[in-house]
């Protein structure tokens, strides 16, 4: 087994892009990543592309688009991965398995999505394709509707935590102010996020617009190399652990408030790494909705079930807290171009570890955790990363 390491990356600005499609986004991101890693297209042994589905355009078979975006890559074996909102991590872990199996030494992981050309209601319908359609397809407001139901159940069981959800939104928007790649660089503040208004209407159940992640365009790329090669390159970020866990897709078949797959992915990853949460310098987590970040606090072990509100109240996950969460602004402010998100989260963590995060930089960042999920905590990925060169 040869351990794959991250040796380079690139990231487009997330938001409403002039790029007409994912191919154009890839054309922007891939050359920058090759350049960052100090390699050429001829060095690449495999391409692993994450794009949610072809619902946002008529173009399917998006694995082959990298070779259209960068003609020198056209002969490199390429495959597209899809695993709902964890599509980016699925592509990354596929590339890592390819290198670990010794089938290639350098792999390109590309996450891309073009969402803003599609009207919001249609985006909601397309995203709901990643719910258990036989039971959940009719839910209003897409995934916001689904997470609206989850929020209502949480409030019913544990009490109304609207204020704390607003605090999570405000934290991530404040962090996003320092991220030049972020979609929405606006410091909204807790009171704005906690007040229903024309500018911040209710979207679904207790969720307000400010509790939702953004509909974004964007691409992110990682370059992976095997351990021997990585140590000869400019930088190397290793995986102390990586874990992937699943739970039944249908909400009717589980207690969704447990976030069981997330909990088990975190436990497995920490165990594999021989670490506790206290050892981590920072976490990038999947805040598709503010309630998700609160449930993830509980799943990772920062709080007991129903106590996630204390984590944000006590400032634990703020920039100057014990475990800063989403220094990049998270999906909430950085944006959530579905296929790109998991790749982007790993890029943000790698930047921190390599002291390359500009205004976002946390001093002495040594170990970073990344959590990316698909569906309502259906498929869950946790990586624990450390710079080794
Ligand atoms: C497991 C998973 O990851 S599931 C998650 C999958 N992703 C999603 O479900 C996407 C969720 N988000 C959404 O559906 C949309 O962003 C919504 C419904 C919240 C808002 O969409 P719309 O109502 O169409 O907003 P619209 O694009 O018209 O923007 C109106 C204003 O609100 C702002 N805005 C839009 N979305 C958001 C948001 N999520 N948070 C804060 N502000 C927002 C815009 O910047 C704009 O501001 P401006 O008037 O100052 O320019």
Lay out the secondary structure.
Elements: E1 4-11, H1 22-37, E2 46-50, H2 65-69, E3 78-81, H3 87-100, E4 106-113, H4 120-127, H5 133-136, H6 142-158, H7 162-176, H8 190-193, E5 202-204, E6 207-208, E7 218-226, H9 227-230, E8 237-246, H10 260-273, E9 282-284, H11 290-300, H12 308-313, H13 330-333, H14 338-353, E10 367-374, E11 379-387
Parallel strand pairs: 2-3, 2-4, 9-10
Antiparallel strand pairs: 1-7, 4-7, 5-6, 8-11, 10-11
Structure in words:
- By secondary structure, this protein is an alpha/beta fold.
- It has a domain at 5-118 and 216-230: 3-Layer(aba) Sandwich (Peroxisomal Thiolase, Chain A, domain 1).
- The chain is 35% helix and 18% strand.
- The strands form three sheets. The protein has a five-stranded mixed beta sheet with strand order 1-7-4-2-3. Strands 8-11-10-9 form a four-stranded mixed beta sheet, with helices on both faces. A two-stranded antiparallel sheet has the order 5-6.
- β10 and β11 (379-387) form a beta hairpin.
- It is globular, with a radius of gyration of 19 Å.
- The two termini are 20 Å apart.
- The protein binds acetyl coenzyme *A.
- Acetyl coenzyme *A binds at residues 85, 120, 124, 127, 142-144, 184, 203, 209-210, 212-215, 288, 336, 373, 375.
- Acetyl coenzyme *A binds next to α4 and α6.
């Amino acid at each position: 087994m040869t351990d794959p390491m991250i040796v380079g990356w690139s990231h487009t600005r997330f938001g409403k892009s002039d790029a007409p499609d994912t191919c154009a986004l890839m054309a922007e991101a891939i050359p920058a990543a090759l350049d960052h890693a100090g390699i050429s297209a001829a060095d690449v042994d495999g391409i692993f592309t994450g794009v949610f589905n072809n619902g946002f355009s008529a173009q399917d078979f998006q694995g082959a688009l990298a070779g259209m975006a960068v003609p020198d890559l056209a002969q490199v074996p390429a495959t597209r991965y899809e695993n709902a909102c964890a599509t980016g991590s699925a592509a990354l872990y596929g590339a890592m398995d390819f290198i670990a199996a010794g089938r290639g030494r350098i792999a390109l992981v590309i996450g891309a999505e073009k969402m803003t050309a599609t009207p919001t209601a249609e985006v909601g319908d397309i995203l709901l394709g990643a719910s258990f359609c036989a039971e959940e397809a009719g839910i209003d407001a897409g995934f916001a509707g689904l997470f609206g139901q989850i929020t209502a159940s949480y409030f019913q069981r544990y009490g109304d935590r609207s204020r704390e959800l607003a605090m999570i939104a405000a934290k991530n928007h404040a962090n996003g102010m320092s991220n030049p790649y972020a979609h929405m660089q606006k410091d909204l503040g807790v009171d704005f996020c906690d007040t229903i208004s024309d500018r911040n209407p209710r979207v679904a159940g207790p969720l307000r617009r400010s509790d939702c992640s953004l509909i974004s365009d964007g691409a992110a790329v990682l370059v992976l190399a095997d351990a021997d090669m990585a140590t000869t390159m400019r930088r190397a970020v290793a995986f102390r652990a990586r874990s992937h866990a699943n739970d039944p897709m249908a909400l009717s078949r589980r207690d969704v408030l447990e976030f069981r797959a997330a909990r088990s992915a975190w436990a497995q990853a920490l165990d594999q790494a021989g670490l506790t949460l206290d050892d981590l310098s920072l976490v990038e987590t999947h805040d598709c909705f503010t309630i998700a970040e609160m449930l993830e606090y509980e799943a990772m072990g920062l709080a007991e079930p129903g106590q996630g509100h204390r984590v944000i109240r006590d400032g634990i996950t703020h920039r100057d807290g014990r475990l800063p969460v989403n220094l990049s602004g998270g999906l909430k402010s950085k944006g959530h171009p579905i296929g790109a998100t998991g790749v982007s989260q790993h890029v943000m963590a790698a930047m921190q570890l390599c002291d390359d995060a500009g205004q976002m930089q946390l001093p002495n960042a040594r170990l970073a955790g990344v959590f990316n999920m698909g569906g309502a905590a259906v498929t869950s990925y946790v990586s624990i990363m450390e710079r080794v060169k």
